[in-house]
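hey can u check if this looks right to u? its 550 residues, i copy pasted from the old doc so theres a chance i mangled smth
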Amino acid sequence: MSSKRGGRIVSRGRGGRGRGGGRETRRHVNIRSGGGDAMGDDGNYPRICISNLPRTVDKSDLMEFLKSKSYQPNLNFKGFEFKNTKLYLAVEGSDNIPALVSLTGIRYGGVKLVVSQEDSNSANTRVVFNGKGQIPFKDSQNKLSATRQLKHIEEHITNTYANNPIKEVIDFSYLHSTKELDFNDNKTLRQVFRLISEKCEKAITVSFSHNNINTLASFKLMIKYSLDHVINFNFDSNKITDINELDNLTDLSLRELVFTNNPIAQLPNYRMEVARKFPDLLILDGVPIGPEDFPPSPIPPLRPNYCDSQERQQFAFRFLEKYFTTFDKSREEIIKAYTEESKFSMTFMADSSTLPMRGSTKTYQRNNRNLKKPSDDVKKTQLLFSGYDNIYNFFKVYPVTSHYLASSVIDTFLAPGSSLLNVVIHGHYLETTFSSKRSYDRTFILAPSQPGSEAAKGGWEAIILNEQLHVRPYVRLPRLEPVTQPIANITAPVGAEMESLINDFAVYTKLKPEFAKECLTLSGWDKSKALETFQNLKANNQIPADYFVA
């Protein structure tokens, strides 16, 4: 078998087991003998699958390494195949398989190997012997063509989803055995993801249970498709052995995952590790993520969104939802949210690996108003966009985006001494053209839109007076633990005591008695808190005139 099968094999001196040794000499070597003497008869042998290999590997050295570490002196490898970045080894004697599989997680060449037994149903593999050595290959008559595979997937979606009134779930369970689909293969999953994006727009849950899946590497491809609506995955009864395989899903904003009956579910601290990898995850294996899934820590948990008023929080969320939907889908309509006096500026931080003139980076760097860097005062002024026309002209060259509002952190509060609303959002978006994510921090200063104005006619409850955008390398927000505040027992005064407190507060504030009572009630009948609330509302002109005694 020649090296075009996909294996990059190198020959090197001893010591290639990750512990140093002779100098490595890289050269292409044809894939030939599996390590035993040539035989003239055909035979069938069980195989093990080794994944998470080093970037370069000497097959003979790896085989010797496995023999040594498995303590099986009579172990013989009768053939091998390198396919889809995995090495398959044919083993003489099935009683040697458990000892080899137990080596999963052992370090070789600086990485942790993942060793598993190949499912006998996953491929019809024969080891054919010729005079030169043992060469395994997959029986071509049972290999599905891309066209036939696509037909199977389309038929399954039509039968189980399109004709099903329940559109929230699409189930691909058992298709490995019933339709011979390989869900470890990039080509298969590309077809699956494309068809889900085109035909299953309402699906929020996808099940891949009972499909002999041993790697999630191909699931990184999901980011290239419009699958934001999929937030739940079921991988029950598969063969995921390495917790780091879940890193292939971390670009997704997931709410529920199922890994029951997978080897990783038996690992120590399994729930804690999964919860840390997926800050937005709510349910794992049917059980809600809770404080018991994390070890005690002296460091207080991070607080979620801050807002000084529930009403203002709801107002801000409505505004942001409309803003980012418009920004992502019909950016020309965004102009109505700005005025001739609106100001906008952007700053950009690139990571060390970013090429300066590639893709969207070029746009960001050209418009980066980092006041510490441009020495030209004229350029600094030009990069402060003023008025809706200039702001929209910048948005026209801004990359096409898809924002994830649900996984953002939003802080909302009134600007001191005014009725303007500060809205600060920290989140991330996908650049759909380049299939890459970026984190951002965006600050808006909002004012109510006037009745009859263009903004109001366009459905905008507020206009943007000032906006600052900071774009940076993508970093997932950590898990935000809600902080529950103890509810104090509030004992309201009764009878004459209540009446006296209301009258005193009404005289001091000049509020009508019924509104003085309302203010005291909302402050837990704490006169100091009620007075502080009253003064803040009055300073911001938020108390109607008819609340006061004439």
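Residues 1-42, 121-143, 482-488 have pLDDT under 50 and may be disordered.
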